[in-house]
Amino acid sequence: MILAIVRKEFLQALLTLRFAVGLILCVVAVAAGTLAMIEDYDSRREAWLRQVAEYDTEVLEKEGPYARLVWDLQAFREPRQLAVFSVGSDRWQGNQVRVTHHEVPVRSQWLGVSNPYMVLFRTVDLSLIVQIILGLLALLFAHDAVCGERERGTLRLMLANPVARDQVLLGKAAGHLGLLMVLLAVTYVVGLLFVQASPALHLGAGEVGRVALMLAASGLYVAAMYAAGLLLSICTRRSATALVLAVFGWLLGVAVYPNVVGFGVDAWARSRLSVESAEDLQGQLHESFGEWIGRRGEREGLVSEWGVVNFGSSVSTGGWDQPRGYAVGSLPEDAEEADAEVKVRQLTSLFADVEQQRSAWADRVWREAWEPLERGMKELHAVAAGLSLLSPAGAHGRATAALARTDRGDYWRFLDSARGYRGQLIAFYEQEGWFGSREWWDQTRTATLEHLPRYREPGGSLAESLARASAPLLVLAGFTAAAFLAAYQRFRRYDLAA
User: Fold this and answer.
1) Taking CA atoms, which of 76, 138, 345, 347 is between 20 and 30 Å from 278?
2) Per-residue DSSP letters for 136-184?
3) How confident is the model at residue 308 (pLDDT cuts 50, 70, 90)?
C-alpha cells in the first residue's frame, strides 16, 4: 500500500504546474548563474596566474643585495574552482599577502577583482539557487500535502482504507521528496555539464567527490524545508493559511535572517574591534624600534662616519615600509683597505644583530597589536556562524562553502600557512648566514634567490572540510528529523472533521 501512495504522490506532483515552473527556473538559473560564475572564476584565475608569473620574474629572478631581494616576497592563494557551486567568501577575501622577516602577515590584498565594490553583491551560484528555488518549491509541495487533501475530502477517503496513518504520511513525504531529489540532481548535473564544458575549469576526482557531498548537503536542506512545510500543513486547517505561513517563513529564513545576522555581526565587530587601534600600536612599536636602530648604529660609529647605514630618517620617522629602511649601501670608494675591512666586519655584525632583532620585533608587533584583533575577529565569526545555524539556509550555505573550500575558515588557514612560510624563511636565512653576510647589505655585491624556499599553498584535505561542515550538516539533519517527528506525532492525532 505504501508503494502505491508513493507512486501516486510522485506522479501527481510531477504533473503539477509548480513542478514545471520549478524545473524551468532551476535550469535557466543554473545555466545563467554557472556561466557567470565560470567567467568570474576565469578572470580571477588569469589575474592570479599573471601576478604569479610577474612575481617569478620580477622578484625571484632579480639580482642584488639580499636585503632588497627579500623585501617583496609574497604568498598567493589560488581561486577555488568549486566557487562556481558555492562562492562563499572566495570573491571578497584577499588572496595575496607579503611575507617578510620584518612583518608577520596579518591581512591579504585584493587580486583578480577589477571592481572591489562588486563583491558586495551576492553572486548567483548553485548553492543560492538551491536555497531560493528548491527551498521554496519544497515548501510549496508540502504546504497542502495534508490540509489540502482534508479540504478536498480525499484524506478521509484514503484513511477509510486499511492503511495506517504513518504509512500515509510516509508515502506522501517519500513521493514528494523523491521528485524534489530528482529536480535537485538535474540542477547539479546541469551545473556540472557547464563546468566540464568550460576550458577554464578541470575538476578532478577529488573535486567531483566534493560536489557529490555538496549535493548530499543540498538534499538535507531540501528535506528540512519540506519537513517544515509538512508540519505547517498538519498544524493548519486551511491550505491558504499554510501557504502564507510557508512563504513568510521562506522569506524570513532564506532572505532576511542570514543577511540580518551578517550585518549585525559586522556592526558588532566594528564597535568591538578597532583596526585603527592596532595600527596605532604598530606605529608606536615601529617608532621604538627605529629609535633602537639609531642608537645601535651610532654606538657602532657607522652612521655619521661612513654614511653607509642610512638608519636615521626612514625607520625612526615611521617609514617602515620603505626599502631604504633596510639600510643597503656600499663602502666609500676612497676608504683605505685596512679601515674598510674593519668596518665591513662591524657592518656585518651590526646587520646580523639588527635583522634578527627586526624579526623578533615583528613577532612582538604581531602578539601585541594584531593577534588579539584576529582572535576577536575569529570569535565574532564563530558567533555569526553559530547564529546562522538557526536557519536551514544559513546551515546549508556554511556546509557547501566548507566543502568547496570557499569559507572563512579556509582564508584563516591561508594566513596561517603564510605565517608558517615566514618562519621557514627566517630559519633559512639564519641557516645560510644571510643576515651575517656582506651580500645582505652591500649593493655592490650580487646575490640571487635561487635556493630560496618557495611558498606552496597547502592542499586542503577532505577531512578538514568535513570537520568544518560537520556542525551545519548535523543541524540540517537534526532539524529535518525533529520536524518530521513533530509532523508524525501531530498527524497521529489529526482531526479529519471539516
Assistant:
1) 76
2) HHHHHHHTTTTHHHHHHTHHHHHHTSS--HHHHHHHHHHHHHHHHHHHH
3) very low
Residue type for position 74: Q
Residue range 346-356: mean pLDDT, rounded: 81
Give the Cα separation of 393 and 218 in Å (integer). Answer: 10
Do 145 and 233 touch, CB atoms closer than 8 A?
A: yes
Question: For 211-255, what is the HEC assignment?
Answer: HHHHHHHHHHHHHHHHHHHHHHHHHCCCHHHHHHHHHHHHHHHHH
pLDDT(247) > 90: yes
Region of residue 112 (phi > 0: left; psi between -120 and 50: alpha; otherwise: beta): left
Please name the residues in contact with 318: beta carbons below 8 A apart, sequence gap of 6 or more: 283, 286, 287, 290
Buried b (16+ CB within 10 A) or exposed e, 14-36: eeeeebeebbebbeebbeebbee
Residue 210 corresponds to which cell in the numbers above?
A: 566534493
8 Å CB contact between 246 and 147: no
Task: Reduce the DSSP state of residue 110 to 3 states and report it.
Answer: coil
Of the chain, the end-to-end C-alpha distance in Å amounts to 26
Calculate the CA 45 to chain-centre distance.
Answer: 16
**What distance in Å separates the CA atoms of residue 297 and residue 301, rounded to the nearest whole number?**
6
Do the Cβ atoms of 487 and 493 come closer than 8 Å? no
- Is the confidence at residue 321, as pLDDT, over 90? no
182, three cell numbers = 530528482
φ, ψ of residue 100 in degrees (nearest 5): -135, 160
The residues, ordered by sequence, that sit 6+ positions from 71 with a Cβ below 8 Å of its Cβ are 100, 323, 326
CA–CA separation, 233 vs 231, rounded Å?
Answer: 5
